Amino acid sequence: MGAWDDFRKAFGGFFVTARQMVRTVRGDGLVTTSYPHEKRVKPQRFHGRHVLNRYPDGMEKCIGCELCAGVCPARCIYVRGADNPAEARVSPGERYGFVYEINMLRCIFCGLCVEACPTEAITMTQLFEFSVTNRDDAIYTKTELLIEADGTPNHPQPDGPLIDLNELRLADGWMRATAPSGRAAYEGVVAWTPSAGVGIREAEAGQGGSALAATDPGEADGAPPDDAGVDELIEQLHAIDAAAGEPADDAEEDAP
Amino acid sequence: MTGWETFLTAAIKVVIAFGFLLTVTILLVWFERKVVADMQNRLGPVRAGPYGLLQTVADGMKLLFKESVTPRKVEFSLYIAAPVAALLPALLIFLVIPVGKPFFIGDRQIDLSGTDLNIGVLYVLALSSLAVYAVVLAGWSSGSKYPLLGAVRASAQMISYEAAMGLALVPVILYSGSASLSSIVDAQIATRSVGPFDLPVWNIVLVPSFLIFFIAGVAETNRAPFDLVEAESEIVGGYHTEYSGFRFALFFLAEYINIFNISALTTVLFLGGWHGPTIGWGPLPWILPLVYFFAKTVVLVFVFVWIRASLPRMRYDQLMQFGWKRLIPLTLLWITLSTIGIGVQRFGVPWG
Questions:
Q1: What pTM, to 2 d.p., does this model score?
Q2: Is the peptide bond before A43 cis (omega within 30 degrees of 0)?
């Protein structure tokens, strides 16, 4: 079959292209999509634009600790904390993020700020469409970053076919993975706090079920954090740490 | 026919042909992009118009409105003349191609070609040789090294493949007994009964001529795998590196009109032109030949695109070897054999 092999060597490429064309025409094996009308499903831990979250009662989660600014390898975050005014508290802690700015042109989207944040105030989302025509506009302040008390995210560009603002409601899985229950020993336990608008976030596949799954996001809206639930959670965390033979460092401070 | 009527007929034909070629270019670019996209599992243009049909119009508008940058070192008169010199032969070649059956107004016959030259094949070859001037002038007058390299490649490549192309047509002219394109089409009307079917005897029975002409045609139009002239991975844009805006659009237009011309010529010379099974009803006997002609041409254009999507670019030495050491000797051998064959068919064996 020497002649046939020679023929295959010389003209085999034509059959490859013809076969792929038949595949594509049948709607099979397309590798591109009609973006932005048809967006791909992004990976769960996609590192998109940041948002600053609030508790379901409208309190800001940021406590102005500047850990995010400290850990940022690109030095793109600027935070200035301030004491909470006694008559109108902004955050449940002592201080709150008075100024919070991220230079999106410098940000490398490594997610270390999310990992460093002790209160899950800053999370990354699935939205990556935020091109600007002016360098100043690339510096996002609290106006753009902070979600509204009802959970509506803010963005400089309006919702449209290109910019799907719903993607700003999807926190990336990294936040959940770096929360205390992200450790293997905490399989099946959720230890992140609920946020305004979305309530308690679902666990990623592999993180098991959710201890606070009973808390309906709709009920959680506007209601203060469920103290009973938190106590129950802390007990669970202690039990798990004891079983794993580790000190329960995350829960120790809260335990009496 | 009075002189006035002749002039009017010619003018109408030229205007129609010009508009037609521009439309065809627009569709051709779209067709090529879609087919290549399909072969690469992509979507291709989908934005402008239904199925992205208007994408080329959008690109053309963009080019028209862009600034035509003129680099400082150009030879300005030649630099300006080159795009025109590229487009003119492309437009002129189409004028001798019969695209359909002649029709009659009163007793005046109107050919569906710009003009019917009795040296049509020579005219086509001569004009496609002229096309190389545009490339060389563009490359030289740009005053830049990449266009010059592209032009040097172009002159060598186009002259080499010109020879094979011209020689491949000798058997066709001998077989059809004419160098006029409409006579060549008419010579392919004969049918031969094979079993229950009446199969047309097209010139494609001269298989080597067909293959050599088509391969040389791909090389003449500087298409992949013979696109060394504008090899973007090696010499930027080749001869049109320094061209932008409308001047670049003219080169682009010429390239795609040339693709259509070569496909149409191959149809005329080898695939029976506008011949095909006709049904006699109303205007159908006049419309169907047009449909046949364009269907055959589109199939060949598809082959052009298919070749582009399948084959990698040849190396320069491979190109020259293939042209001079394979194609031209093969063509000469084929001319000898086919001439003997046609002679025997026509006059009988010399000892008989």
A1: 0.76
A2: no
Q: Which residues of A touch B (CB under 8 A)?
A: 13-14, 16-18, 20-21, 23-25, 29-34
**Closest-CA residue of chain A to B39:** A21
Of A102 and A210, the one with more pLDDT? A102
Domain residues of chain B, as ranges?
Answer: 70-347
Residues B252 and A162: their CA atoms lie apart, in Å, by: 32
Partners of A17 on chain B (C-beta within 8 Å) are: 39, 306, 309-310
First to last CA, chain B: 49
pLDDT band at A222 (very low <50, low <70, confident <90, very high): very low
Residues of chain B numbered 287-346 and touching chain A (CB < 8 Å): 306-307, 309-311
B110 touches chain A (CB under 8 A): no
Question: Tens of pLDDT along B89-143?
Answer: 988 888 888 887 777 777 777 777 777 788 888 998 888 888 888 888 888 898 8
Asked if B42 reaches chain A (Cβ–Cβ under 8 Å), the answer is yes
Token digits of residue B219: 């090389």
Whether residue A103 has pLDDT greater than 90: yes
Find the closest chain A residue to B311 by CA distance.
A13
Do A16 and B310 lie within an 8 Å CB cutoff?
Answer: yes
Largest CA distance in chain B: 72
pLDDT score at A181: 65
What is the C-alpha R_g of chain A?
24
How far apart, in whole angstroms, are the C-alpha atoms of residue B171 and residue B331? 10
> Does residue B297 register a pLDDT over 60?
yes
Say whether residue B41 is in contact with chain A using an 8 A CB cutoff. Answer: yes
Q: What does residue B168 show for φ and ψ, rounded to 5 degrees?
A: -65, -20
CA distance A26 to A8: 25
Q: Summarize pLDDT for B23-70 with one digit per residue, the tens.
A: 988 899 999 999 999 888 888 888 888 888 888 889 889 988 988 888
CB contact under 8 Å between A21 and B35, yes or no, is yes
ipTM of model: 0.71
Nearest to B306 among A17, A23, A29 (CB): A17
Q: Which of A101, A97, A99 is nearest to A137 (CA)?
A: A101
| C-beta atoms of B41 and A25 within 8 A | no
User: What stretches of chain B adopt beta strand conformation (E)?
Assistant: 103-105, 108-110, 191-194, 197-200
Shortest alpha-carbon distance between residue B311 and chain A (Å)? 7
Nearest by Cα to B275 from B259, B245, B295, B256: B295
